[in-house]
Amino acid sequence: MLCQPVESEQLQRLLTRVKCHELLEAGVLSSLDGMYRSLIRVTPWQGRLFWHDAPPGFRDSWVFLGADSVDFARHLAEWVVKHREVRYDRALDLCTGAGIHALMLAGIAGEVVGADINKRAIAFARLNAALNSIPNASFCHADLFNGIPAGTFDLVVSNTPFVFLPDELRPRCRDGDGGAMGIELVLRLVEGLQTHLAPEGVAILHANSPIVKGRDLLLDGLCERLTGGRWQLTLIPTHEFHDASFYQLYAVHKIERFVRYIVILRAGRPFQVERPSLPPWRKAACAVRIASVHAQGTFRLGLDQLR
Question: Helix or strand or coil: residue 80?
Fold first, then answer.
């Protein structure tokens, strides 16, 4: 679970030398300086175990189940409890990754489909469905809606990749790359909802929005695509932050901060936008951290200019 190194002889006594060799050949273990390290991690959630790749990231076909995935799972669990009387015929989890969100929906939907552009993710999701004895979930290789089974879905969820990455990292971080400004992918997904979400269906998405000159770019993009249609749009902010890792890129694009949202779209309703505020104490705490990132980032940019 923790992917800590283990002495080779100790693991061979537990599993046998032959089995350790098979796991090395399968890419489940690595070996260095007389130590084995697992390349696979298991994350427990609601009495189930979910298998996925271990850090570090930024490598081809990496499938990770991290804090963002667990946070979205928590929000979905709250939705399920709040709407415990609702059952869905067909549910779809786009960008399914290791399958945690799709398998959560199996208890409230007759059929669940999980889809991902990463074939390694599909393999992990199928493994997790089998190990957790969930028979009504299937998984397919797809680029958003391109490749999913025909028909509409009355519930669509997605923990979309939403990181705005430098161009050189994008090919190596498919699981995190949100495209232009980090919102390109989620906006493409919303465009596809208009033909794949059932009448009066619901979509629940997890996304970041960059704030540029006071404008919420995700909100602007959603309104541009949905205004005039029958959609009720709710953006629930859960976090505000800035990322020091790519501060120079974000400074070039005048990004002041990011807002993390749970986005809920309800089809078949008069157009309406709701955006509650973060609690004042939460917003103040986020503002302090954001100011710290800006101070450090500005200092580093200044040093770079002096070199």
Answer: helix
Taken as a whole, the chain contains a residue count of 307
Nearest-angstrom CA–CA distance, 160 and 276: 21
Find out whether 11 and 20 touch, Cβ atoms under 8 Å: yes
SS3 of residue 198 by DSSP: strand
Taking the C-alpha atoms of residue 41 and residue 64, their distance in angstroms, rounded to an integer, is 9
The domains of the chain are located at 1-38, 42-306
β 40-45/48-53 pair status:
antiparallel
Neighbours of 296 (CB within 10 A): 13
Distance between CA atoms of residues 84 and 64, nearest Å: 29
Interval 43-85: pLDDT, tens: 999 999 999 988 766 566 788 888 899 999 999 999 988 988 8
Does the domain at 42-306 match CATH 2.40.128.630? Answer given as no
Phi, psi of 302 (to 5 degrees): -65, -40
The per-residue pLDDT for range 166-219, each reduced to its tens digit, is 888 777 777 778 889 999 999 999 999 989 999 999 999 999 999 999 999 999
**Token pair belonging to 126:** 């199928």
Cβ neighbours of residue 3 closer than 8 Å, sequence gap 6 or more: 37, 38, 39, 41, 54, 55
Residue in the block written with tokens 């570090």: 56
Instruction: Let me know: does 122 contact 133? Beta carbons within 8 Å.
Output: no
Strand ranges inside the chain, DSSP E: 6-7, 29-32, 35-38, 40-45, 48-53, 88-94, 109-116, 137-141, 153-159, 197-212, 215-216, 231-241, 255-267, 272-274
Q: Which distant-in-sequence residues (6+ apart) come within 8 Å of 162 by Cβ?
A: 176, 178, 182, 183, 185, 186, 206, 207, 208
